Amino acid sequence: QVLAYLLISSSSSATARVSDWIDNWGSDTFPNMANSSIIISFLAFVVFAINSLISAYNLFRRDL
């Protein structure tokens, strides 16, 4: 869960930085690559979240 939190916080800050990059230096290939990386990071966060839900389900459905 800590990794998922770090991933989503870094992705959100990268989104703001890409916007600043475009405002300061214009659009080139770097912002396109950065946007692709941000999308992949958000997808990885979704996978971490689903994995957390499955793990919690498996943990609490066991008979003690």
UniProtKB/TrEMBL annotation:
Which residues are in the Casparian strip membrane protein domain? 1-47
Its main subcellular localisation, reduced to a broad class, is membrane
Enumerate the UniProt keywords alphabetically. Answer: Cell membrane, Membrane, Transmembrane, Transmembrane helix
Transmembrane annotation, as ranges = 38-60
Subcellular location(s) of the protein: Cell membrane
Q: Which Pfam families match?
A: CASP_dom
Lineage: superkingdom:
Eukaryota
User: How does this protein lie in the membrane?
Assistant: Multi-pass membrane protein
- What is one term from the GO cellular component aspect held by the record? plasma membrane
User: InterPro entries per the record?
Assistant: CASP_dom
Subunit structure as annotated in this protein's UniProt entry: Homodimer and heterodimers.
Task: State the family it belongs to.
Answer: Belongs to the Casparian strip membrane proteins (CASP) family.
Write down what this protein is called: CASP-like protein
Q: Which organism is it from?
A: Aegilops tauschii subsp. strangulata (Goatgrass)
